[in-house]
Specification:
With about 160 residues, the chain is an all-alpha fold. About 75% of the residues lie in helices and about 0% in strands. The protein is built from six helices and no strands.
């Protein structure tokens, strides 16, 4: 069974498709985790994880953002257009899609952080650093980033390339 086609039972095609979806979701979740870690490095003056852990509301906001992120990723992985013309192994381990996903995510993350700093400088009367003073504020901030990551990954998964 080197290639999928009419000679393969439908349930086998569905199982192979599900394997690809699961793999894309795990790769996307790993990218999102790396994105949160990158935020720690790129915006070091706000100790997000420490502050979020101090408040149940902030923790719940973080979890809500995580579920939205994963929902967007699962939707993107399920609806991603893929042609079943390659051998099975290359269909599941589609490094072109993974590379596009990682590149889109990295560029979008850098653009998002750059815009964060630009808006911070353009609005001097709104002290962005004050987020660190309130755990709920940190939770809302990370919630927004998780939704941002989910949208980026969804767009990369469902993009036309």
């Amino acid at each position: 069974m080197p290639e999928l086609g009419l000679g393969v039972p439908f349930w086998v095609i569905v199982l192979i498709w599900l394997a690809k979806v699961v793999l894309l979701v795990f790769v996307s979740a790993l990218l999102a985790w790396l994105g949160v870690r990158a935020l720690d490095a790129l915006i070091p003056h706000v100790p997000y994880r420490e502050r979020i852990g101090e408040s149940p509301v902030a923790t719940s906001l973080f979890m809500a953002g995580f579920f939205i992120l994963i929902g967007l990723v699962i939707h993107g992985a399920l609806t991603a257009l893929t042609a079943v013309t390659a051998p099975i192994v290359w269909y599941i381990f589609d490094f072109r899609t993974w590379g596009l996903l990682a590149m889109s995510f990295a560029i979008s993350l850098l653009l998002g952080v750059a815009l964060f700093y630009i808006v911070d400088k353009l609005t001097p009367k709104i002290p962005f650093g004050s987020i660190k003073e309130n755990p709920v504020a940190a939770g809302i901030h990370i919630f927004g980033y998780l939704v941002f990551f989910g949208l980026i990954l969804h767009a990369a998964l469902t993009g036309p390339l």
